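Q: What structure does this chain adopt?
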Amino acid sequence: MTNGENAGTANSDEKLSNVKKISIGLQSPDRKVRKQAFLDLQGYLSNENAEFSNQDLRSIFVEIHIYVLNGLRDKVENVREQAIKFVNFLIIEKLPLNDYYLTYVLPVLVERIGTVELIEESEEIRLQILQLLDAIITKYSHTAQLVPFLNDCVTILAETVKDKYPTIKELSCRTVIKLAEALPRDFHKQAETLVKPVITCFYHQRYKVRVEAVYAVGEIVMHSSYKALEEAVTPLAEKLFDQIPAVRRAVAQVAARWLMEYRDRYSFFHKILPLLLTGLNDEVLETRMEAAKLWEQAGLQYQQENEKDFKDEIDYLIQPPKYYPDNVLRPNIGCRGLVKRNVLKIAPGIANELTSWQEDIRLRCAQLLCAVALHAESDITQNLQVLLVAMYSAARDDDHRVVSNIERASEIIGCFVKCDTWSELMVPLVEDGPHYGHLTVLKGLIRGSPREYFAPYVENICKVLSEDFICCSRKNKYQVELIECVKALAEKHDNGTEGEAGYCLFKISTSVFALKHADNAEKIRDSDVMDRLKDCLKLESVQELYDLYAGRLLRHVNRNPELWTIVSEEECLFLSLLSHVNEAFGRNLDVIGEILSLSLDTQCDAESRLKIFYVLAGVFENKEAVFGRAENRAEFLEKLVQDVFVPSLVWHAGATAEAIRTMAASCLRSALLPLDGVELFTAETLRPVRDKLLPLLTSLLEDASYRSRETAVDCLVLLKENCHRTGIWEIGDFVSVYPEVLKRLDDPTDRVRICALRNLPFILKNVPEIFKDLTYRSHHELIVDTLMIHFDDDDEAIQKLVKNALESMVEINKKELLNKIERHKPLLRNQKGCEEFLESLEGLRITEIK
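A:
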């Protein structure tokens, strides 16, 4: 041995001796001494002046490893912590790569944190031990020395991912990925054992743990058999509903990697595709953009891998279909091909999950359906029956986002699937009695269908929807969707008023308006719907709609009007028509008169009659539009008065009968109102009406209801004016009417008194000439005496009305009027009023003399 070798050996022996001396402190009962010993060892081995060869370090490790590794088991936490730091320093920084060292270290790590039973109680120490393992894997990455310890690493990680400490879980997932990358050729041997432990992290409350777990599972599956993928797909799909965008983005990234890199991906495309396609409709823009980018890459790769299969499409089908949805970028050929070849396997799962009890699952499935329908295009036809059933149910979801996506999916399907195909599936269901889910889907299919192809089917669908049991519904959501169907059909209709479509759409709309639910007052605007119908039928105005179809619809509802109640669909529809027909009323007087005669019979439902009278009164207030161009209006009104008003004005006991009399009188008043330029009655038609009405109206003046008495006065005046205009106002009629009106001046209700006084001048105007003779002087005296009594009323308004009535007597018997006033004047308190009235009469006399 040379001197140099002797010197080197002596130097190594000295280093080893120094280390042994320091290591004695590791066995001390004093915790401070043990901790200080680790610090001294690290300080000695890191001394820059002392160079340690690999052999020196190996010899040192052999001598002290038992004591050092025992430090990992020390009862004192501070000592264990320092021991971990020293092991990390020794193994990672000082010792060279050699599986010899790991042979001693890893079993201790397994012992401390790799067993089911919790050995290391300190969370911080467990984390540091895991960090040590992570550092070892990093240092020994892609080396043969790490291979023998793969099982130990997996054993540790399988336990640490289940640790309660979130930071340990997070690091464990990252370490799993690092281990897979460190041993790419060997990791598959143990990978599957990590699937279940890592999946437990999917449900941790910290989102960073969930994100790392998703990435870890993605890596594990890449190195495992199909069993791992099948085990991971469902939990991974659940993370699509995670509230944190980063988690959903991680799922999309993992799915995209599987689509492009998983060795057996062709067998599992149907399981992987939904994970990425769902991300295309994510709420967060960044997630959608990244998912779209990854999906495009996957599609392009698939296209390249199957270039021969797509050759014709690549070469010839460059332009999108003629009626491709607006504002939608068509996916590339590979993306479409991927979905088309797997839609048979994907569709049943979507259909099943659309009816899930979990709201998030229903939402994501509805979004996924949109993406699948857009990619599959016409290839979704063979799955349509299964999907439609689920879509009907999902369209009734309480979450509007689910419904919105179902509507969108329906429009896409309508765009690509032939009309005869989906109509054969939908129409029979609708004919059996739809719910609003059916109508929601139908609306989407109609909207999506190209007008050119769908136009021939419009009339048939309109006929189905116009059936009474379909269009006459009081359900609020059902009504909204039915009207939306009408709007969609109107957009596709292009035959004007030809065929039955126009009438059917009119009937559906009118039925919904008539039975409209209270909640739909703002959702369904009658004018908007009618304007659309007018435009689609190429009419000038909405009134033309009623002119064309109101008569037919009135004849349709004319079914047993005598049996109607206020909830009868036919009555509601009839009243709705009456409120809107205007000019069309006059063109359908025959059917309207027949319905009114039957429905307002005294034996019919009282509430129903009351409601019809109310609407009819409103119609007569617009008489110019109703009767302006009508034929046979005189016969209609005569029949109406005789068959409806006369029986209804007959007194019957009870509050309901009283209300009907009042309402009938109000309606009669509207009917008797004159119409400028149009004579509603002739002498022949009015005479029998007069004979029957006068006794009834005079008896109504004694009715218990003040409204009836007030209305009766108005009706008598209007009847008198109509009779005078037609030349049949006779002295007997006048003499029987005016005393009854005078009696109302003593009515207990001021409104009736005022009404009587207001109308009395009209009664006294244009009296029959014979009434002015002296033979009727007693009548003149009765009128003046009665008025003079009320001329002394305290109310100035009454006094003024009485004065107007007295002025009407000037033309009848002025002399008697003056005499009576002179006689009554000393007895009245209203001296001023008498003087003013006499002065006005004197002025009148002077004017006459001149």
